[in-house]
Amino acid sequence: MKNKPLLSGLSLFSGAGGMDVGFIRAGVEVVSANDIDRDACLTYEANHPRGIIQCSDINQVLTDIRRFEGVDIIFGGPPCQGFSVAGKMNPNDPRSNLLWTFMKSVELIKPRAFICENVKALAVLDKWAEIRQKLFLFASRLGYTCKLVILNSSDFGVPQSRERMFLIGFRDVEDISNLETQFNRYKKPSPTIRAIFSLLGVAGSKNNQRVCNAKITIAAKPIMRRSPYAGMMFNGQGRPLNPDGYSCALHASMGGNKTPIIDEEHCYFGQDSWIEWYHSYLMKGGKPLSLDAAPKRLRRLTIDESLRIQTFPHDYQFIGKQSSIYRQIGNAVPCDLAQVVAEVVRDFLCQSYSTIPLPFIEDEAKQLWLAI
């Protein structure tokens, strides 16, 4: 960030602040944030002592949000359940309307740039083609040039195969034809699950205490795939993870049988994989084992392991019950991926940059949220 000025940013649908971590690292001064989840707001406050988070329904403060006019960037990830293939894909889901609340915020504040994160399905499925067209038309009428970029976290140092879309718009940067290629400069190899877990220790140890006790049971009618780490050999939607690869996408529904599975003896001590053995056994025509035949060496991901996969700082504090913490982690944008997005956006903005002094914006923001 040498010789680059700080940019000011407003964070919406902030959750626990994973996206904010990345943007702050990239030199964005977050002047204020908003989320409706009380635990997530407490988590945000615990880790961003200078941050101001308004814990409320964003629609209740939308009329006052224009007071933040002048910030450089608005960023956030409106709830995606209405668009996700993991959900019911219901366009009438009330949470889907929050995508337009985000765009309304852009209309009111007129930032130099905005970044709207959501699920890949919204960017690629024909089902959502009309919504994409409306998004681009709305942004164009506001004076923004936009691009829709799909990124996989595992291409940017995150040990997780998690594809997300980012709708990125600029108000005073006309040529963004090379936006996608700019992300190539930030690509780097990601560590394996085994590599990041080895720094923690086994479940229950000092640095890995927050275990998930959800039981693992064998599927009576397994759905087989070529890979031992695909298909459904166990009940529930929590897939087994390959320690020598990347995690599948972590979801907000973790905490029970939707939490991914790890073979601790294979991951931590280098023993042969029981998961791979069982897969081979079934592929050769073996009959499924009994419901309770899963060995104790198989367990669910812990909270601390999930945090590493999402690239949160090791000392990031989470507030709430275990189910709430898993939800906050799963809802977050991986911090390292968010940083890459912020770096690319600031590279474009800093080509020609002048700004209101940040101390003014920050002090003003404090007064404004207190007044709302």
TrEMBL record:
GO terms for biological process: DNA restriction-modification system; methylation; negative regulation of gene expression via chromosomal CpG island methylation. It catalyses: a 2'-deoxycytidine in DNA + S-adenosyl-L-methionine = a 5-methyl-2'-deoxycytidine in DNA + S-adenosyl-L-homocysteine + H(+). GO terms for molecular function: DNA (cytosine-5-)-methyltransferase activity; DNA binding. The active site is at residue 80. Its EC number is 2.1.1.37. It is an enzyme of class 2 (transferase). InterPro entries: C5-Methyltransferase (IPR050390), C5_DNA_meth_AS (IPR018117), C5_MeTfrase (IPR001525), SAM-dependent_MTases_sf (IPR029063). PROSITE patterns: C5_MTASE_1, SAM_MT_C5. Belongs to the class I-like SAM-binding methyltransferase superfamily. C5-methyltransferase family. NCBIfam families: dcm. This is Cytosine-specific methyltransferase. It comes from Drouetiella hepatica Uher 2000/2452. The lineage of its organism: Bacteria, Bacillati, Cyanobacteriota, Cyanophyceae, Oculatellales.
